Amino acid sequence: MSLVAQNIFIQRKNFSLSIPEFTLETGEIKAVLGPSGSGKTTLLSVLGGLEKPDRGSVELDGQQLTSRVVRDNISAVFQFPYLIKGTVEQNVSYGLRLHHVKREQCVPLVKEALATVGLKGYERRSVHELSGGEQQRVALARALVLRPRVLLLDEPLSSLDANLKERIAAEFAEILHSQKMSAVYVTHDKKEAMIIADTLEVIVAGQIISKFDVKHFYQAANNDLTREFFNLPAPLKSTISQADSLGDGVVNLRLGDKLHPVTLVPQEMNKLAHTMNGESGVNIFVAPQDVLLFRENEQAPQYAEWLLLEGKVTSVYERGERAQVVVQTSLGDVVAVISVVRCHELHLHTEMPVQAVLSSYHVEIT
Description:
The chain has 366 residues and is of the alpha+beta class. The chain has helices at 40-47, 67-73, 88-92, 94-98, 103-116, 132-144, 162-178, 190-196, 217-220, 224-229, 266-273, 340-346; strands at residues 2-12, 15-25, 29-33, 55-60, 63-64, 74-77, 150-154, 183-187, 199-204, 207-213, 236-242, 250-255, 258-263, 280-286, 291-295, 306-319, 322-329, 332-339, 353-359, 363-365. The protein has a 6-stranded mixed beta sheet with strand order 6-7-8-3-9-10, with helices on both faces. It is elongated, with a radius of gyration of 25 Å.
């Protein structure tokens, strides 16, 4: 299965959408993330055949999106569940009845869909007795019962409170993956997108500014617009030089007045090969959760693959069970996200000298 949109262009009075290419593959859950007014819902409407672009095309397995192709292959879940008055069963079977499926055939399909979303035995419940999270799961079951090849979700959790949203997002992710569903998930919530999606595309002012695999988020989100959107720390600045005697792919990375051998993956080596002349300037990207902190006089790991930077704490911000710590080093500010327990063990405070330790396996050098 492949849903492909090409050269999509829409011009409105105060807005334009320009998407050269958008592709969804079989079993892929792709989040489209952007602020209000960025064009994400308009893009979803185009993908679902609800809005015709001024230019461009959308195809599902090589077929143009006609109303019949949409009806037979695509389902949607919206910001509000839009449930009809009645029972859970009546709501979940609604689409099946529109497809003229007989009642005796609907019953086992509805039971299966409800079991999938964790609402087994809810058939006779009135939808108005349900919580907000349960109502959204009914809406998801109503979409899944049609066994669509593509599922479109337009901010389905935005009306829920923050704590419930995170839990339901994790449940949605488990359901979509267990069903091997191909889905496009539109949201403005960064955390929600990271929980649910395999791949992510960031849309700002009607244009996709970045696309990447969620697993490699911090390494892939390395353009300025994307980092600004996610409020990510600036890259560290350093230099590298050839280390011919240490083997293929190994370079010397300067950390203060010391050179540290680092093995680059082939993609990094290929990108940097043409600039390698003496000591070349590089950017170092590291995920905050991959940074370890130690007190100035504490024994830090001495393994070859660990990079050690000395610095001082400039800010400590605790939120829930995690703490964000900013450490000023000679290469720039290192942002670490550690447990509050570890933060208290270290007695961290501003101006405190610390050691920031990075695994060379978890940094990207560009």
